[in-house]
Amino acid sequence: METTKNLTPDLFEPAETDVKEQEQIARKKLTFWGDVWRRFRSNKGALIGGILLLIIAVMAFIGPDMNPYTYRAQDYSVINKEAFGDHWFGTDALGRDLWTRTWYGAGISLLIALLAAAFDLFIGVPYGCISGYYGGRVDNWMQRIIEVLYGIPNLVVIILLLLWLDPGIFAIALAMGITGWITMARVVRGEMLKLKSQEYVLAARTLGASTSRMLVKHMLPNVMGPVIITIMFSIPTAIFFEAFLAFIGLGIRPPEASLGVLIEEGYKQLQLYPYQLFYPAAVLSLIMFAFNLVGDGLRDALDPKLRQ
Amino acid sequence: MGRYILQRMAYMLITLWVIITFTFFLMHLMPGSPLQNVEKIPEELQEAILKEYGLDKPLPVQYVQFLGNLAQGSLGYSYKYDGRSVTDLLMQGFPASAQLGIQSIIFGSLVGVLLGSIAALRRGTWVDNTANVISVLGYSVPSFVIATLLSYYVGVKWGILPTGLWGSFQHTILPTLSLSFLVIATIARYIRTEMLEVLGQDYMKTAKAKGLSRTASIGRHALRNALIPAVTVMGPLVIGLITGSLVVEQIFAVPGMGWMFVESIQVKDYTVIMGVTIFYSALLIISIFLIDILYGVIDPRIRISGAKE
Amino acid sequence: MEKQNLLEVRDLHVSFKTYNGEVQAVRGVSFDVKKGETVAIVGESGCGKSVTSQTIMRLIPQPPGWIKSGEILFDGQDLTKLSEKQMEAVRGKEIAMIFQDPMTSLNPTMTVGKQIMEGLIKHQNLGKDQARERALEMLRLVGIPSPERRINQYPHQFSGGMRQRAMIAIALACAPKLLIADEPTTALDVTIQAQILDLMNDLKEKLETSTILITHDLGVVAETADRVVVMYAGKVIETGTVDEIFYRPRHPYTWGLMGSMPRLDLSREKELTPILGTPPDLLSPPKGCPFAGRCKYAMKICKQQMPETTSLQESGSHQVACWLEHPMAPAVEPPVEMVGGGSK
């Protein structure tokens, strides 16, 4: 080595050592949610899904007002016409504007799904929290109930309930919420059990944190991830079910529109006017696609095993 | 293991009883009489009919009778199809539905396992991305949309395959395909996740350190470990298939149970609705139970620890 | 009598690509393993000892990892140049490996017997029955009672110690020339640790296998190794025989390691002295000696240049990379407690 030749004695004087300097963490530390966001962003699919969702949500809001027609106004002079003029999606068998109806219907479908998700949250999360946090006999009984209910296929319950209730926005959401919360409760309980055995929770408890503080400060933030993921997957399921119910004749009543109702109406015209099925079906598929992409992205981003 | 099975069976019975009771009371609390759609039936005749079906008795009595009949395998008689028993109708619709279900599970699982494994092995490449898009599409696009598209293009426009009716294998192709999409999507995604998990396990390193080739270590070590937990998705899949069959059978005019169920919902044929509901529930509960048992049998870890319990 | 080198690692560099940049896990590592010898690689976690050992078997995942430069000569053959196919013939047959955690290193859904037989069938062209016979023999050799019953059992039916014995049986089944044991006892109970070490020592003598033992436990080193390689921040900073490293260590880091280990031969009042600070981040390794920041004796030169590896005159086997060995450096005596044992 050349450099070794020009060594001077002063280089061999003691150097200041600063241990603190060494303790400094050279790497930029990412917070948990910061890391989640970073990984979510780097997931192209999730990003596309998110943007799609945003566009659809905005369209559900402003779409129906973009042309002069309302979702229920019939015009017998323009029956079953493919896209023309400002009827961008054409008209249906009663001369109603399909563009307006599609976006209006998308809004209703989303509303039903959000309502159903809200049911999941308000029943499922507390149920799971209580069951998982208290454990013991409380948990035992609550689990027995869940075990029985979980075995009931929700398809059957939803259909029966809707035969009984008059299918409206609220009734459909209720029927789905009544069955949907069970999954949520199971997810939350599982997380709670996992968390309870973790050391930091034990540490907080040894330091005298109260039960409510424990639940709100320590457990809930950690349960958030799985809860959000569950919601992200239960919303498309609800949207699917709404459409499915409409298809078998248990949807909301015309002239109200939802994507399911529109698809059902479009299906009747399929042989002659396939476009009437195409638009609502495409929007429905896009919504579900977007939710699933975002849900997948979130799940990957929140999975500690996939952290790098 | 034996204790576990008994306990599970007890739960199955309770669940089934809850469903039956729930169904029964819901159906009998429906507003209006089952005869409301039938026009101009003389009063006496209506009463006679109600009596014949046992609908004039108090509800609790009817309930006990219903349970008694059920225990003997009788689900009552259809309101709509005069004189046909519900069991009869079920047996008539079951074979077609079962054939569709089994075909789509077999086809869908094969494609799904293939797609999922390839995606995991080629993680991050275009192959993986394509497989992912296919699987997300597979359960984003509802079966009735897929079914209508298939029926419109393959059936009507191109005229390659029959779009309706029942009889030969060709009639089953389109409905089977429509139902398989969900199976493919679910299995592919599950296998991919499991496979990635397994590939990162230490024992895969051990296999490599033994000098096994990549093919051998995947075939002998990874696949088996990834397939075992995939059995558990079969439960939700059966549910998904039943749901799908309701509309797919409608679209392709398959004379199966799903078709019959939708028909009975539309004409409010309560006894048939009740019968099919109970049948579906029993089918699901039993298949989930069987899947759990199967899982225990093929996973050596559960097989043994279950025995100790 | 000088024994022949079985393995020569020459200036090995291994890096990993991460989201934050290139992590230089191994930065110019060289050492030899002679036939029949046990070499221990010691160092803190993250010093690159596991990466080095996995690179020898070419087990590091590529990507994100890659061998930047260097040679791994095994029996005169450069392993870094072999194709994946050629490497398969080396793994398990010539070089075998035991991993840290016997709980996760065995396939849970395959019987232990089959897992032992796999390598035999692949490398020794044995039939199923012969392989089974040999597997039984191996189980007996590693001290597993009633092997006829055990051979058909699954890993979860084995205790931790038993599983590690099974791992050893898998590794030694094809009588490899070199065994790499990566922290083979870390995950085990203390009582079991001793049994496993005894077994390894035993088998090493019986089968004349060379061994590379990766560990951070100096007690294990003293008990099993012939020579020691001390690694720090991806570099070898000192090598020597066990006696040289334990009784005449020359690098301040080695002094620190010794000082942080409880010893029976020193006075009881003596407290353990931890090494203050943390190793440098290998995303941006320092240009000078990586230990300079934590070193009590650090000089200006230490932070500017990496010292060359010096062979000590007293013995050709003892090498150290430290500026204190330079003639211009002030004479520094190791802390008193280090020389407590005196020269043996």
How are the secondary structure elements laid out?
The complex is a heterotrimer of chains A (308), B (309) and C (344).
Chain A (H helix, E strand, L loop, with lengths): L18 H5 L8 H11 L1 H19 L35 H37 L1 H15 L3 H11 L4 H28 L2 H8 L4 H37 L11 H10 L6 H28 L6
Chain B lengths: L1 H27 L14 H10 L6 H13 L14 H36 L4 H15 L2 H15 L11 H31 L2 H8 L4 H17 L3 H18 L5 H10 L3 H29 L1 H9 L1
Helix pairs in contact in B: 1-12, 4-5, 4-7, 4-10, 4-11, 4-12, 5-7, 6-7, 6-10, 7-9, 7-10, 8-9, 10-11, 10-12, 11-12, 12-13
Chain C lengths: L4 E14 L2 E14 L3 E5 L6 H8 L8 E10 L2 E2 L5 H7 L4 E4 L13 H13 L3 H14 L5 H4 L9 H13 L5 E5 L7 H18 L2 E6 L2 H7 L2 E6 L2 E7 H6 L4 H8 L40 H5 L4 E3 L7 E3 L23
Parallel strand pairs in C: 3-8, 3-9, 6-7, 7-8
Antiparallel strand pairs in C: 1-2, 1-4, 4-5, 9-10, 10-12, 11-12
Keywords (chain A): Cell membrane, Membrane, Peptide transport, Protein transport, Transmembrane, Transmembrane helix, Transport
InterPro entries (chain A): BP-dependent_transpt_permease, MetI-like, MetI-like_sf, OppC_N
Membrane topology (chain A): Multi-pass membrane protein
Number of strands of chain B: 0
- The CATH level-2 architecture of chain A is identified as Orthogonal Bundle
For the record, the CATH class of the largest domain in chain B is Mainly Alpha
H/E element sequence of chain A = HHHHHHHHHHH
In the CATH hierarchy, what is the architecture of the largest domain in chain B at level 2?
Orthogonal Bundle
Question: What number of domains of chain B?
Answer: 2
Q: How would a textbook summarize the main sheet of chain A?
A: none
- Mean residue pLDDT of chain A: 78
Shape of chain A: flat
Radius of gyration of chain B: 24 Å
Please give the share of residues in helix of chain A: 55-70%
Level of helix content of chain B? Answer: over 70%
- Unreliable spans of chain A are none
Radius of gyration of chain A: 28 Å
What is the arithmetic mean of pLDDT of chain B? Answer: 81
Q: Structural class given helices, strands, pairing of chain B?
A: mainly alpha
* CATH homologous superfamily title of the largest domain in chain B: MetI-like
How many domains in all of chain A? 1
Proportion in β-strands of chain A: under 5%
Q: What's the N-to-C terminus distance of chain B?
A: 7 Å
Summing up helix and strand content along with how strands pair, one would put the structural category of chain A as mainly alpha
Domain ABC transporter (chain C): 7-258
Keywords (chain C): ATP-binding, Cell membrane, Membrane, Nucleotide-binding, Transport
Protein name (chain C): Oligopeptide transport ATP-binding protein OppD
Membrane topology (chain C): Peripheral membrane protein
